[in-house]
Amino acid sequence: DEVPAQFEDCMKYSSMTNSTDLDVLEVTVASPQGVNGKLHTLRLDLCMLSCEEKAPYGPPKHTAEMFIQLLKKTVEENPTSKVSTITICIYKVKEMNYPESFQKFNGVLLPGSISAAYDDEPWIDKLKDVIREELWTKKVPTLGVCFGHQLLAHAMPGGLAARCPAGFQLGHRVLNSLHSLEFDCDTISLLYSHGDYVKDLPTVASSIGGNADVPVQGAVYYHDSEDKKPVFVSFQAHPEYVSEGRELRTMRALAESRESTGALSKGEVESILRNVDENWDEINLHSIKIMTRACELLNWL
Predict the structure, then answer these.
(1) Which long-range contacts (CB under 8 A, 24 or more apart) does 243-249 make?
(2) In the predicted structure, residue 182 carries a pLDDT above the cut 60
(3) What are phi and psi of 14, to 5 degrees?
(4) Strands (DSSP E) along the chain, which ranges?
(5) In this predicted structure, what is the pLDDT of residue 13?
(6) Strand order in the sheet with 169-177
(7) Closest CA to 52 of 105, 116, 135, 128
(8) CB–CB of 59/10 below 8 Å?
(9) Inter-residue contact 218 to 246 (CB < 8 Å)
(10) Are strands 107-110 and 42-50 parallel, antiparallel or unpaired?
(11) CA distance 85 to 35
(12) How confident is the model at residue 180 (pLDDT cuts 50, 70, 90)?
């Protein structure tokens, strides 16, 4: 399939390997010093279950690159972290490509997709089984973002993903409440791009807050009430987008793509991008903060 012209920059991360090969991204934390002068010594090895080949939620290496850069910044800005190296190993689940075992990883990233969590597709059915039977049962720390957030809910008993009644959400939005995350602020500004939402949370999940249009903007999943750490953390937002800096190529390309299909007017696109630019400092800060809290909860720092 051809990639729209506005996504050509994203394609620089595309893999030229065949489907049986794995792409592994690796970065080293900039500061060699940890707490009290002790060297960082730990590796953070993550598995990304890639759910999309096409931009803007793909290609897989582009998505992994955004996540690994955000994780790098998160680690470098956390003075107590002992992580020295971060790796992301990419598995393409649309090709039924999974690791033999999740136990060799510190956790799993479940990112965005053009598909819907409720689509009747064999690869989605398989992924839901993996979520229930592998990730949940074996307590594999997992971060779900956008489609990942919706699929975690849809896969677990009592959860339901559906079309968002408020329509497609794109750009800067404010998440309220933030209960369960112990933030030092009552609201948080993040970047969004989604047409579906979590309508009903599973019985094992609790909302971390939302807004009038999307009441469940994130969730934490605990095996039982006595657990101090959740197994899953999920966000409807895309904190990884800020890793591209103020230029925000992926967000900008997505807005322009919707303009090209007639879903948005030129004026609406300009308004969305202007709002993001005006709130950039807060969006950038809060994206790192919410990723930091997720990493703390999942024991990734």
Answers:
(1) 243/65, 243/66, 243/67, 243/69, 243/70, 243/73, 244/66, 246/277, 246/280, 246/284, 248/191, 248/273, 248/276, 249/9, 249/10
(2) yes
(3) -65, 145
(4) 23-28, 42-50, 83-92, 107-110, 142-145, 160-163, 169-177, 187-194, 196-200, 205-210, 218-221, 232-235
(5) 38
(6) 23-28, 83-92, 42-50, 107-110, 142-145, 232-235, 218-221, 205-210, 169-177, 187-194
(7) 116
(8) yes
(9) no
(10) parallel
(11) 16
(12) low
Cα 1 vs. chain centroid, distance in angstroms? 24
58 beta partners = none
- Taking alpha carbons only, the member of 164, 170, 149, 159 closest to residue 195 is 164
- Listing DSSP states for 48-69 in one string gives EEE--SSTTS--HHHHHHHHHH
Name residue, tokens 């020295």: 84
Q: Which of 264, 300, 256, 245 is nearest to 75 (CA)?
A: 300
pTM of the model: 0.89
Reported as a single tens digit per residue, the pLDDT across 107-140 is 999 999 999 999 999 999 999 999 999 999 999 9
Residue 160 is predicted with a pLDDT of 96
Average pLDDT over all residues of the chain: 87
The per-residue pLDDT for 181 is 66
Buried-state track 248-257, b at ≥16 Cβ within 10 A, e below 16: bbbbbbbbbb
Kindly report the length of the chain. Answer: 301
CA 100 to chain centre: 23
In sequence order, what are the beta bridge partners of 4? none
Is the pLDDT confidence value at 275 over 90?
yes
117 close to 150: Cβ distance less than 8 angstroms: yes
Q: Which residues contact 231 (CB under 8 A, 6 or more apart)?
A: 135, 136, 139, 140, 141, 142, 221, 222, 223
C-alpha atoms less than 13 angstroms from C-alpha of 182 in its C-beta half-sphere = 5
Mean of the pLDDT values across residues 25-53?
Answer: 79
For 96, the token pair is 């039924």
User: Which DSSP letter does residue 180 get?
Assistant: T
Would the pLDDT of 7 be above 50? no
